[in-house]
TrEMBL record:
Broadest EC class assigned to this enzyme: transferase
Reactions this protein catalyses: 2 cob(II)alamin + AH2 + 2 ATP = 2 adenosylcob(III)alamin + 2 triphosphate + A + 2 H(+)
Pfam families, per the entry: Cob_adeno_trans (PF01923)
Keywords: ATP-binding, Cobalamin biosynthesis, Nucleotide-binding, Transferase
Region of interest called Disordered, as start-end residue ranges on this chain: 1-26
NCBIfam families for the chain: PduO_Nterm (TIGR00636)
GO molecular function: corrinoid adenosyltransferase activity
Entry's family note: Belongs to the Cob(I)alamin adenosyltransferase family.
Domain of life: Bacteria
Cobalamin adenosyltransferase-like domain sequence ranges: 8-166
EC number: 2.5.1.-
Name this protein carries in UniProt: Cobalamin adenosyltransferase
Amino acid sequence: MANRLSQIATRTGDDGTTGLGDGTRVPKDHLRVQAMGDVDELNSHIGVLLAEPLPDDVRELLITIQHELFNLGGELCMPGYSLLKDDAVLRLDEALAHYNAALPRLQEFILPAGTRSAAIAHVCRTIARRAERAVVHALHQGEQIEAAPRQYLNRLSDLLFVLARVLNRANLDGKGGDDVYWHSERLKRQQAEPGED
């Protein structure tokens, strides 16, 4: 994008339309704009997560992710244009493998709870899933969107789940230490009757 914002309140959107990066004006509820909004919301919530106490390596990873999400949003804003680099999805795959390797195997489904930072990571995860659904919906309705944004959001939601588990164990606010497990009927039966499933 050659132009930088010099004015925020342009009033050009008062008619219910907004401009894409290629100059096209579309309704503000256009599928592409909805996907862009979900990505922006996700990036904003990652900003909230970055305001929490975090391990240094997680902080650096999230800062990189914020920049990549901005690229992803820019790509959605410009039909036919590619901004998200190939190595972005690979970086998420590597981070997933790295952080997941140190975690114990899940015993049951977990709740989006624990430390404040872990809970915010779960909120980010759910917004990433919504953004992914918005991109897929736009694709199914004929929008031209590269594969990388969809793949990136899919991997990112998985990574945020793993990071929530990491942040509970980091216990930087003294309120965590482990996953918060869902108390399913199956788990209750197993605890009441050891050895039976």
